[in-house]
Specification:
By secondary structure, the chain is an alpha/beta fold. It has nine helices and 13 strands. Bound molecules: 1-O-phosphono-alpha-D-glucopyranose.
Length: 278
């Protein structure tokens, strides 16, 4: 079975919930304490054995590229000082990973962004991380857990978590049969259903391992919810062929696309770093 070498980061969205902070800065650069969201995502991918990062950007997202590049003036300025250490992790990422970028010119949905990113992926299975879903775990990272499942099942894998029924309208929601504890063979998926229409309270969160047939399916998936091309709809086609599983990941996820989730993530991470320092 093909190994997962590439991770796609759809990062073209406007981040309107964080205006004015995101007026001239991508939401993926918002820091949890001192590290931007995108870097946590890249670190999670690396931990899953992935070294090729493919980022779908858009207008106003240049700083994402600059973040994973040398900053000569700054680095010259802090060379030899204690501050150099603060860039060590970022430098290590740059040394062991490759980064490629493409732009989503029109905002036509997450499915469309993944399609656009397909040019960077080619014809192989790949991972997707939505960096504003920030995940923390005690053992292996969420993506590493999912790659292990892909290696067992050889089909698409989506991360899921139980949410209160009145919040289903914010997520893709799945339905299926629990084949093993925490592993659900998906039979139905609905993008952002009202609580009345939701088939369950199992919500998709921003981690996917996808097989390359998803690109052909996306090409033939019409716009769905909000007139956007939805990855949920393409995954439903895979699910109807028996080729998609949902996985109740081990760990905690913060919705950093919302101000409240972002603040919770910040407080959690700050407290954790304080404890580690002691
Ligand atoms: C996207 C997906 C949705 C998924 C969510 C996870 O929605 O369309 O199915 O549940 O990510 O964060 P978005 O949050 O981009 O509106």
């Amino acid at each position: 079975m093909a190994t997962i070498n590439k991770c796609l980061f759809p990062a073209a969205g406007y981040g309107t919930r964080f205006l004015p902070a995101t007026k001239a800065m991508p939401k993926e650069m918002l820091p949890i304490v001192t590290k931007p969201l995108i870097q946590y995502g890249v670190e999670e991918a690396m931990e899953a054995g992935i070294t090729d990062m493919a980022i779908v950007t858009g207008r106003g997202k240049r700083s994402l590229e600059d973040h994973f590049d040398i900053s000569y003036e700054l680095e010259h300025q802090i060379a030899g000082s204690a501050k150099e250490e603060l860039l060590a992790e970022t430098r290590a990422i740059m040394e062991s990973c490759s980064f490629s970028y493409t732009r989503q010119v029109e905002m036509r949905g997450l499915g469309h962004a993944i399609s656009v990113g397909g040019k960077l992926i080619g014809r192989e299975p790949f991972a997707v991380i939505l960096a504003d879903d920030y995940c923390v775990t005690e053992g292996p990272g969420v993506l590493a857990q999912m790659v292990a499942l892909y290696e067992r099942f050889g089909c698409s894998v989506v991360a899921i978590e139980e949410v209160p029924k009145n919040e289903t309208y914010r997520y893709g929601v799945i339905e299926g049969v629990e084949e093993e504890p925490g592993i659900i063979r998906i039979s139905n998926m609905v993008e952002k259903p009202t609580p009345e229409d939701a088939p369950s309270n199992l919500a998709v969160i921003g981690r996917y391992v996808l097989t390359p047939e998803i690109f052909d399916i996306l090409d033939n998936t019409p716009p769905g919810k909000n007139n956007e091309i939805q990855i949920t709809d393409a995954l439903l086609t895979q699910a109807q062929r028996g080729n998609a599983i949902g996985y109740k990941f081990k760990g905690r996820r913060f919705d950093c696309g919302s101000v409240e989730g972002f603040i919770d993530a910040t407080n959690y991470t700050f407290q954790k770093t304080q404890i580690e320092k002691q």
